Amino acid sequence: MKYSGIGGQAVIEGIMMMNRNDYAVAVRRPDGEIEIKKDKYESITTKAKILSLPFIRGVFRFADSMIMKTLTYSASFFEDDEEEEPGRFEKFLDRVFGEKLESVIMSIVMVLSFILAIGIFMILPLVIANFFKSFITSEHVMAVLEGVIRIAIFIACIKLVSRMEDIRRTFMYHGAEHKCINCVEHGHPLTVENVRASSKEHKRCGTSFILIVMIISILFFMVIRIDNIGLRMLSRIILIPVIAGVSYEILQLAGRRNSKFMDLVSRPGMWMQGLTTTEPDDSMIEVAIAAVETVFDWRSYLDEAFPGWKESSTP
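^ that's the sequence the OP posted. Answer follows.
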């Protein structure tokens, strides 16, 4: 595998692919056609040099993925055609915020989602683990127990949301995204047949990032020992940027290196991707290819990274 620099994410009935500042969202419309939107996005890390430094950039790269409006774009194709008369509260919000209403709502949703995620994945595992403190004296064991509970909650949440049809299809598009990137990074022309034969797991996946965060948090909390439960909760929140920064650097190393050690580091995350990626059908692969080709010249990449690929791919 050779690093290509492209990455992406699944959206509703489509895929976003990004190459440097260029990104494209390809969506399979209800009429069967593929709609593509190409745009540019300037990362938060380019605003100031300090934000692009190792162990700092990871937090802001994660924020980038939340700020980009790719999900709302894809969802716009599947909104109900019948427009209902807005209620009083909606009219009030429209008067107050005007054209900024959508951005304000998205910001509120992001903040609430972040708070909810902290509560579920950082505070709740600590509270549950604390019930065992009376008969577990080792702080190291308590840190491991808290981490195991955190991972169990994450798996349970994924299993729960995956019961929804839209989420199941999104996981299929997630698999198509990985397959496309794996296809070109392993030196194969980007065709439906080659993509279908590629792996649906990828080292740089966000699912792997989340698992690395949970494992790194265990190591941090083994070292940081605080008796007061309130201060321990506070420490979990304060250390989120630090843990995320370290985890991001590990994910980047694993995604760019082919050493046996990095393959071993990547393995748990790729196992976890079995929960968030599903084998796509050919129509989804076509959407993924369309998104890639809009922002990435894979032929030039193969010429540089895999000289002779044309001869090897000729029947």
